[in-house]
Design a protein that fits this description.
By secondary structure, the protein is α/β, with parallel strands linked by helices. The chain folds into four domains: about 1-30 and about 85-145 and about 225-355, 3-Layer(aba) Sandwich (Rossmann fold); about 50-75 and about 360-450, Helicase, Ruva Protein, domain 3; about 150-220; about 470-670, Ribosomal Protein S5, domain 2 (2-Layer Sandwich). The protein is built from 25 helices and 25 strands. The strands form eight sheets. The protein has a seven-stranded mixed sheet with strand order 18-19-17-16-21-24-25. The chain has a five-stranded parallel sheet with strand order 5-8-11-1-12, sandwiched between helices. A three-stranded antiparallel sheet has the order 3-2-4, with helices on one face. The structure holds adenosine-5'-triphosphate (ATP). Adenosine-5'-triphosphate (ATP) binds next to helix 7 and helix 17. Adenosine-5'-triphosphate binds near residues 108, 111 and 112.
């Protein structure tokens, strides 16, 4: 197993073949010391909570003996604050040592940028550099670039300024001496006007000379003097100038009023993150040209700065190459992979790591203690929220369990969990409460509803206004399907099916065509076997009533199959039943996502029974208020779905029996008699 993980974490192909000074991942393993794995970053070391811990495994706070978050110690270093994501933490630790790039893919708010920031605390900061841009006397449009150890840049600029100041003072004294002499002489010869003109010319000549010596002062492009950790630059959504550097436009351009080109040079994120971390979220939204330049920068480790706007005088200027030896942490959601520049992706693949972020983590006493610490951390970071009582923290942890959507797990979507903590704290603050209590958290849960949840509730309201919600009686071909909207809300989506004579076509509109087609194909074996009807001679019309948001073809499979079978056999479907589940071609009901939210949506719509896949049974964590309103029936086969959903014996019974017989026959066919040769 450990070997598997080792192979998985190795940079793909090219990484191990790269230059000599780059240690391979195995070298790094040997180099690791207990210290490296300590401090809570990929460590097994228990976290110091500065509080007693009891052995009570059922305790919602993992045995943490505290009265409120006030009693919980929050670690100072970001690396010690990261919860879960063990694999990503390990990769970040390795990549920091090997100076490899990372591609992090995962849901928003799972800690991608937090980990990238934490990475800077693992990089050495003693080899940081300052970058200076000098005027080039041979070519004013190609400023010179020099690097010096961090902190020296300031000193060099100060020394140049001092030198220029001294030179200017000397010149000024000389200028006034000359002017006094000229004015004195002009008084002496009685031509004061000539004297004033001569003095003015001399004044301007000296001013011009002084400007020339000011131009010799270098521009401190990157100043790392006060850095305690390696730099971190977040260039998410940055335009080309902010990413690659820019040269400002000069409206005067010539005639003595212009600003020297080296003074107009601005560093980009790639330069500021030299020897640090460049973080780019939503990497797929970066325009192609920027992605190409980024690849060049990664390859060369240096990148000249030029004006990004073609019409600006800055475009005439191009500096010597400026160092940009950064570690890139590119991040995105799953769809980022599709739109990312293939060459950039293959560069990361070849010379770095790819890591998928976890959405949930196993619920253990140690984890709960960390979640309690997370609440304390959010309170501390905000600085204005009242501390949370023990019961309030327990409620947050319960919500983390619920949001995971999986039994025995906690959600790792910390951004939204942090949002809940802040809303609860704000409610408590508005009441001038000393502590944030469980009641405040419960109120916050109601208030901090996502757009999707609000939209789902609006739909429910509207449906009932127009009597669209059906939760009683029986209707042929109409099923209350269930879908998820966003991450955290369910909605009842009625599906209608009608069957007519035709040519085996599945008729639906737009996006639904694809979904419906696939679903009908998936269930056609069942329909054919069990209805004795050849659907090649029929047209199946399917309609997802109202809209198609949130409809995933797969989880609507049992609903579509039920609607079609009902329409074919003209047996009504009970409208106080809703259902969700995927379906195999042999009629097995397979697991789907978001069952808890779907059940709650059904309960809100007044539905009495919800059919879910048996394998999802353990994921159900509905709120207490819905528990009594709705009966959840886990099923493993379509025959069970029909048994519950169809109404009107004896037709229904005949149909279900037929289906059961077919299923038994299918089961028999599936079994290979012992001793029989293995099929080739
Ligand atoms: N694994 C984690 N451990 C502790 N806190 C976390 C974790 N992940 C996220 N957080 C909290 O959530 C906040 C947001 O996380 P972060 O910005 O890192 O998410 P992200 O994955 O980069 O999301 P996005 O892609 O939307 O930018 C962090 O500032 C931190 O407070």
């Amino acid at each position: 197993m450990s070997n598997e993980r080792d192979t998985e974490d190795r940079p793909v192909d090219g990484a191990s073949e790269s230059s000599d000074h780059d240690p391979g991942p195995d070298d790094v393993e040997e180099e690791s010391t207990p210290e490296d794995s300590g401090g809570g970053f990929g460590s097994d070391v228990d976290v110091e909570f500065d509080a007693e811990i009891s052995e009570d495994d059922d305790d919602l706070l993992g045995g943490l003996r505290v009265e409120s978050t006030e009693d919980i110690k929050v670690p100072e270093k970001l690396v010690d604050q990261v919860i879960g994501q063990d694999h990503a933490q390990e990769i970040v630790r390795k990549a920091a040592k090997q100076r490899r790039h990372i591609l992090m893919i995962g849901s928003p708010g799972t800690g991608k940028s937090m980990l990238a920031k934490a990475m800077t605390q693992l990089l050495p900061n003693e080899d940081l550099q300052d970058v200076l841009i000098y005027h080039n006397p041979d070519d004013g449009n190609e400023p010179k670039v020099r690097t010096v150890p961090a902190g020296k840049g300031d000193q060099i600029v100060d020394a140049h300024k001092e030198e220029a100041r001294k030179r200017n003072t000397m010149r000024t004294i000389l200028m006034w001496l000359i002017i006094i002499v000229i004015l004195g002489y002009s008084l002496f010869i009685g031509n004061i006007l000539l004297g004033i003109i001569a003095a003015a010319i001399i004044y301007l000549a000296f001013k011009y000379a002084n400007r020339g010596s000011d131009a010799m002062i270098p521009n401190l492009l990157i100043n790392n003097a006060d850095r305690t950790t390696a730099p971190f630059e977040d260039v998410t959504g940055a335009h080309a100038g902010a990413l690659l550097g820019d040269v400002r436009h000069d409206p005067f351009q010539s005639g003595g009023m212009e600003t020297p080109s080296h003074d107009r040079v601005e560093a980009g994120g790639i330069h500021k993150s030299h020897r640090g971390v460049l973080f780019i979220d939503e990497i797929n939204t970066l325009d192609v040209r920027s992605q190409q330049h980024l690849m060049t920068a990664i390859q060369e480790g240096e990148f000249s700065i030029t004006g990004q706007s073609e019409r600006s005088s800055g475009a005439m200027v191009q500096t010597e190459p400026v160092p940009c030896d950064f570690i890139m942490v590119a991040a995105g959601n799953r769809d980022a992979l599709e739109n990312m520049h293939p060459a950039l992706r293959s560069r990361i693949k070849g010379y770095g790591y790819e890591v998928f972020m976890d959405d949930t983590i196993e619920d253990t006493p140690e984890m709960r203690r960390k979640y309690a610490r997370f609440v304390a951390q959010e309170v501390e970071n905000d600085g204005r929220l009242p501390h949370f009582t023990r019961e309030a923290v327990e409620e947050v942890i319960l919500e983390a369990k619920r949001r995971s959507g999986r039994k025995g797990h906690l959600t790792l979507l910390f951004r939204s969990l942090g949002g809940l903590v802040r809303v609860a704290g704000d409610i408590a603050r508005a009441e001038d409460a000393e502590f944030t209590t469980r009641d405040h958290v419960l109120q916050a849960k109601k208030r901090s509803r996502s757009i999707e949840q609000q939209l789902a509730d609006t739909y429910i309201e509207r449906y009932s206004d127009y009597d669209m919600t059906m939760n009683e009686g029986g209707v042929v071909g109409r099923v209350n399907g269930l879908a998820v909207m966003g991450d955290d809300s369910g909605i009842v989506k009625p599906i209608m099916a009608e069957v007519t004579q035709g040519h085996g076509e599945v008729i639906a509109t737009g996006k639904l065509q694809e979904i419906a087609q696939e679903s009908v194909q998936n269930v056609s074996a069942i329909i054919k076997k069990f209805t004795n009807q050849d659907i090649n001679e029929l047209d199946v019309h399917i309609q997802f009533l109202q809209s198609y948001e949130g409809v995933e073809g797969d989880s609507a499979s049992i609903s579509i199959a039920t609607a079609v079978i009902s329409a074919l056999e003209e047996i009504p479907i009970a409208q106080d039943v809703a259902m969700t589940g995927s379906l195999s071609v042999r009629g097995d009901v397979l697991p789907v996502g978001g069952v808890t939210h779907k059940i709650e949506a059904a309960a809100k719509a007044g539905i009495d029974t919800v059919i879910i896949p048996k394998s999802n049974e353990q994921d159900v964590m509905i709120e207490d208020e819905y528990e009594e309103q709705v009966e959840v029936v886990p099923v493993s086969h379509i025959s069970e779905v029909l048994e519950i959903a169809l109404v009107g014996e004896p037709e229904k019974d005949g149909l279900v029996d037929r289906l059961k017989n077919i299923t038994t026959a299918l089961e028999r066919d599936r079994q290979v008699p012992s001793g029989s040769p293995t099929p080739q």
